[in-house]
Write a structure and sequence with these properties.
The complex is a heterodimer of chains A (335) and B (363). Chain A is 30% helix and 24% strand. Chain A has 335 residues and is of the alpha+beta class.
Chain lengths: 335, 363
């Protein structure tokens, strides 16, 4: 095979088939995909499914802690998992710029297969399009996924109630700051690393500890601030966070300080916020801490009142400030 | 010592607040000059814990806010010139001009890129030899030295496709204009730590010597600010008029001599217009004759005329600390971060942005 993707790889002919066989099937290989039908045909034995889709356009495509492929699998798996469902099947669609290295594509596909395998999901259908140079930035990936919603679990962003404890599974802003520093070649030393990970097994652990968890959301774009504002709006409650409880890596703290950014607004790809009734918070927290992706789980705040639709932060000096819904893109300051 | 956590210590900040409460019961007006101070004060909820007699007034120390609207409009004009790449700090992207912002022009297809340092423009210039790079060179004494180093290096390397649209401003003359304003009654200044790191503390001595107003240089962590306020309120209540430095880990009395040397190599001090405030003598920086070839206005033969826009916007009075953003009829109604009328609402260091983001509804 040639070293780079050409338009003929997307034309549906010999080259397309070769690419499918030598790259995608090689790694995604599973009984459903191997049937080679136009649509994946799957047996199901449940009543309620979770169904989601997400597109991934990250720059740089490879970063410390992952690549666009790993991100594409984790992102969709997590959206299903935090809905209180067991992720089962994914589809993946690639839009590739001509001239993209096949070796790099293979690395991306390999990462997807590895992550899907770890998460226990099958990639059962896919599509590849190749566009002319300049029409996309290297490679874009879309993944869709379905999962089986657990019985007796009702996780919904409208379910937060007064008294609920807000738990996160670890440090905030790792992914966003890694990407920002690598993209802009800021030359910051240290170990900035994306937290990109599939959270379904952690969610399973949490549900096992207490099936009545009110809300779980993964805190991706817009960071914890965006997710909490959404929950506050849909559940019609006020949420108060404690500044000195927010878990932050030194590297992230340093980079956000320097750039004048607030880690509450920085993206995560392996972090979730859970709203748990106070009586069960300790139990859920302890279970999370026994899981590799939850060992740094902490309580960051609680739901303090009804009819608020606001998120507040109790600051280290004893003051209080609004944590607003993010607006526009996060831009670094001048000085 | 990590220089962050130690300055966010909960217990120590409580002690400082307690001390502050016991110094004086007189009404005291303190201006924090720097936009980064304004943001930090809101971000840490410091206003909530201050004694009620201590009134903090936000000053004009936000570089984006004091840049006239004509600057944005001219930057947009430059972006539309053939083969021009505009390089800018991120803060400038969303500032509204008469017809859109740099952000909307970027979306229309003009080549406008965010840089983190003017030095990035040297690489951009060498990677794009057929393009002309125009750096939007704004900011106070904090960013001007980097622009100076960049232009010196550009000249030394004979880079002919890099230009600067300069609107650098220097802080002390603006403060002098404020203390001369009879409507403003400022009892003391929290002095801008970043600016002082470059220029030192001496340029502020006129405040205490000529106007009997004390000032305290301080940093940007909550403990820094509370410590600075303690010292300042003490000076004010004892009528001791002098400049104190509570940011000694960063600021030296003489400033940063290397940075100052670069500034004097590249720039002349000139009169400059501050948005909402007007023309202030000797408050701006312009390339000296040795570097005028790098001046974008001269190179592109642009007849630059300064003006302020945003009708109805009360930015001027807000920048001078005469009114609060919540007193502006546009605040939260016509002027929001999504749809800013004035740059104070869009800049990450703008007073209106600080009020909107952190304090608009807090009860």
């Amino acid at each position: 095979m040639n070293d780079t993707i050409t338009l003929s790889h997307g034309s549906g002919g010999v080259q397309t088939n070769r690419l499918i066989n030598e790259v995608f099937f090689k790694y995604f290989n599973n009984d459903i995909l191997n049937q080679m039908n136009d649509a994946a045909q799957v047996d199901v034995d449940f009543k309620k499914l979770a169904f989601t889709t997400d597109s991934f356009v990250v720059n740089p495509i490879f970063f410390n802690g992952g690549n666009i492929g790993k991100l594409a699998v984790c992102g969709t798996v997590n959206d299903i998992a935090v809905s209180g469902a067991k992720p089962l099947y994914l589809t993946s669609a690639f839009i590739i710029e001509e001239g993209f290295s096949i070796e790099k594509l293979e690395e991306i596909v390999k990462a997807m297969a590895l992550e899907a395998n770890k998460a226990g999901v099958k990639i059962v259908a896919g599509d590849t399009k190749v566009v002319e140079k300049g029409n996309v930035d290297g490679i874009f990936i879309n993944t869709s996924g379905i999962g089986r919603i657990y019985e007796n679990v009702n996780i919904n962003c409208a379910n937060a109630r007064v008294g609920d404890i807000v738990i996160v599974n670890g440090t905030l802003g790792d992914h966003g700051m890694t990407i920002m520093c690598e993209r802009n070649k800021l030359g910051l030393e240290g170990n900035l690393k994306s937290d990109c990970a599939c959270l379904n097994s952690l969610v399973d652990t949490m549900i096992e500890a207490y099936a009545g968890i009110h809300v779980i959301r993964d805190a991706t774009r817009g960071g914890v601030a965006a997710v909490l504002n959404e929950i506050s709006e849909f559940s019609n409650v006020t949420i108060a966070l404690d500044e000195n409880k927010l878990p932050l890596k030194e590297e992230v703290k340093g980079a956000t300080e320097m750039l004048g950014l607030d880690p509450l607004y920085i993206a995560n790809e392996g972090k979730l916020c859970a709203f748990v009734p106070e009586a069960y918070a300790e139990k859920v927290l302890n279970a999370m801490r026994k899981h590799p992706l939850g060992c740094e789980a902490v309580i960051i705040g609680k739901v303090t009142g009804e009819l608020g639709q606001k998120v507040y932060l109790n600051t280290v000096v004893g003051g209080k400030r609004l944590v607003d819904m993010p607006s526009g893109i996060q831009l670094p300051r001048i000085c | 010592m990590k220089f962050v956590d130690e300055f966010r210590n909960n217990e120590y900040s409580k002690k400082l607040v307690e001390k502050l409460n016991n110094i004086s019961s007189e009404k005291i007006n303190i201006m924090e000059v720097c936009g980064t101070h304004t943001m930090a004060i809101f971000k840490y909820g410091i206003r909530d814990v201050l004694p009620t007699n201590v009134n903090l007034i936000s000053g004009p120390g936000c570089p984006v806010c004091v840049t006239p609207q004509s600057y944005i409009d001219t930057a947009i004009t430059l972006s539309q010139k053939k083969d021009v790449i505009i390089a800018t700090f991120g803060d400038m992207m969303r500032v509204p001009g008469k017809k859109g912002s740099l952000s909307t022009k970027k979306a229309e297809g003009f080549d406008i890129r965010i840089v983190y340092s003017p030095m990035d423009c040297l690489i951009m210039a060498s990677q794009n030899p057929s393009k002309n790079i125009v750096f939007l060179s704004v900011g106070f004494e904090t960013t001007a030295p980097m622009a100076a180093i960049t232009v010196l290096e550009a000249k030394q390397k004979n880079i002919r496709n890099l230009f600067f649209f300069t609107a650098h401003k220097i802080v002390p003359p603006a403060m002098e204009a404020l203390v001369q304003d009879k409507e403003l009654k400022i009892d003391g200044f929290l002095l801008p730590g970043h600016v002082c790191a470059i220029i030192g503390t001496k340029p502020y001595e006129f405040l205490s010597e000529d106007y009997n107003i004390p000032g305290v240089v301080t940093g940007f962590e909550p403990i820094d600010i509370l410590q600075g306020l303690n010292t300042l309120v003490n000076l004010i209540s004892k009528k001791e008029y002098r400049i104190e430095n509570e940011y000694k880990r960063i600021v030296k009395t003489e400033g940063n001599p290397i940075a100052l040397e670069y500034l004097s190599k590249a720039f002349n001090i000139v009169d400059s217009s501050w948005r909402g405030i007007g023309r202030i003598p000797k408050s701006g920086l312009e390339f000296n004759s040795e570097y005028e070839d790098f001046d974008a206005l001269k190179h592109f033969k642009i007849d630059y005329e300064e003006y302020d826009g945003s009708p109805g916007c009360k930015c001027g009075e807000i920048l001078k600390g005469k009114i609060k953003p919540t007193d502006c009829p546009l605040f939260k109604k016509l002027c929001t971060p999504e749809n800013p009328v004035g740059s104070c609402m869009v800049s990450s260091e703008g007073t209106c942005a600080a009020y909107y983001r952190y304090h608009r509804d807090t009860k």
